[in-house]
Amino acid sequence: MTRPTPETLAHSARRARPGAGAAGDPDHAARAGAAPAASRSVPAAADTAAAPVRQSATAQVSGAGSLVRSLEALGVDVVFGIPGGAILPAYDPLYDSTVRHILVRHEQGAGHAATGYAQATGRVGVCIATSGPGATNLVTPIADAYMDSVPVVAITGQVARPSIGTDAFQEADIQGITLPITKHNFLVQTADEIPQVLAEAFHLASTGRPGPVLVDIPKDVLQAPATFSWPPTLDLPGYRPTLHPHGKQIREAARLMTGARRPVLYVGGGVLKAGATEGLRRLAEQTGIPVVTTLMALGAFPDSHRQHLGMPGMHGTVAAVYGLQKADLIVALGARFDDRVTGKLDSFAPDATVVHADIDPAEIGKNRHADVPIVGDARHVIDELIAAVTAEQATHPAVDLADWWTQLDDLRERYPLGFEESADGTLSPQHVIKRLGEIAGPDAIYVAGVGQHQMWASQFISYEKPNTWLNSGGLGTMGYAVPAAMGAKVGRPDTTVWAVDGDGCFQMTNQELATCALEGIPIKIAVINNGNLGMVRQWQTLFYGERYSNTELGTHKHRIPDFVKLAEALGCVGLRCENAADVDKTIEAAMAIDDAPVVIDFVVGKDAMVWPMVAAGTSNDEIMFARGVRPAFDEDDI
User: CA nearest 469: which of 445, 485, 492?
Assistant: First the structure.
């Protein structure tokens, strides 16, 4: 992932395309050729695409003009948003800008689209909303991006400075509201500081541990005259993320890795964000250590690789859960020991020494004590571990892991991921998702909502390449899939993008399909329609005596809504599949359509469950392979 620095920011300026504006408008005057000599010779963005330009640019503009020019200078190609009163001044210079604005149907869609764009491309995603309800509608996607460490900049309008604190129309303290769920946020006080604030926001969002940054701009600041000057000087005292790990800690980790009898590499999303997947593969193959990848790290290590045990955690593979639980050494790379992986924390991996490497020092020791704490960027950590392990192996041959692999291979053979076709003849959701992955292939991007379909998509699609699996892991946001898929397709237009959604999730944000239809964003949606809030129903089956309180949605019994008709009403192609014989040809029909969004209503059985499962609050030792079936672990082998 490209991570801008103060130096690269200085070289990324781009002039806006000259365009028509209102007579007397300072933005129009600058764009029409009245800019000072220093900026007059800068090539237009339309002529140079993303070519670098001169390091200095100055113009007399409004605060709104300065905002748009800053976005252009930062290399932003697209923003997702909805105009409104407080942010409206920014939309006038945006009309003439090289930045593409995609008009969404709900601010939540703008936020998730920015997240999907960022996850698919590694660049900063940008969303825009007005004050009050516009800004508060961004709270959920901001929290989502915060939990999953996604680089997003959210720009919100605010009421004029004299009105702040007076309960003015459409006023909300969005800076205060989002303080706990942003990496940093700004309330801009003057028009002249806008370039510096924007540059700092992008730098903060994309460096260190990535995350969302909010920039709140009062309307009178947007309307005020300003001097746009680029590049700005960043002023971020105390912000110096540690990229390179301490050599002593690396050497100690290497010593432990060559001496362990039951080691596991526990890989989290930080490895993807650092662009460290090639190094991870070299490290794994050099050491022969088994690898598990979390829900946020799928694709960081090929699913088909001999050393990959699969995903750990609540719905992980038996081998992955067992491997962590019985390990004598866990090397955590860009992972955070969250509750869905550890289960009951005090019983997690009781005999393991822990090496924990993360760019965020606050994560190390937060949930599990780290015997060897390593602060650093995952790419640098892995590269230096490779060198240290090579040196260690030259003088101390590594322990033979054959016995460990014998145990793990036995578990993989006895407890593979699988499913049974529905006894009542209804379509199996696992079969649908498995065939989708096989037909669309490993080059497609798969974006999941939250629930059973998310877990099946993580289990039955093979992820061979990085950044091909997007989901809401930390916050678990229903409604994430459709707008995130939209953002991913905008960021990678030549890649096939499939959203795997549930009938519950789909009804939360499907209005963004209208955006896709009108903006020419041909995503594909597989709605796994079981007529219920599936994961909640599964818990009610297992833990609430099959008392199904408020989980039936009516999409089966009443076909309300009819997803095919809904898709067509939103400008998409609607298809339906209700039996196994039609699955392949329906998916292939969707794959053949590349000029419109496609929605497939897969009508599946309501009683399918996600297995394996570790019930919330229980130990990983209590993993269930299927209902009433606990894996048999031979403790004498440990």
Answer: 445
Extended strands (E) in 19-93 = 57-62, 78-81
Q: How far apart are CA 254 and CA 71, in angstroms?
A: 44
Q: What is the pLDDT of residues 562-587, one digit of tens each?
A: 999 999 999 999 999 999 999 999 99
The contacts of residue 310 (CB under 8 Å, 6+ apart) are 292, 293, 303, 316, 317, 319, 320, 417
Return the active site residues.
107, 169-170, 219, 535
Return the axis-axis angle of helices 63-73 and 194-206, rounded to nearest 10°: 40
Q: Which residues of the chain have a pLDDT value below 70? A: 1-56, 634-638
pTM assigned to the model:
0.90
Place of tokens 């829900």: 295
Calculate the alpha carbon distances from 448 to 445, 484, 497, 528 in Å.
Answer: 10, 9, 11, 11
Residue 545 burial (C-beta neighbours within 10 Å; 0-12, 13-18, 19+): exposed
Indicate the SS3 state at residue 262: coil
Kindly state the tokens that stand for 114.
Answer: 């920015």
For the record, the structure tokens of 624 come out as: 């269930």
Does residue 347 contact residue 619 with C-beta atoms inside 8 Å? Answer: yes
3-state helix, strand, coil in the chain (%, to 5): 40, 15, 40
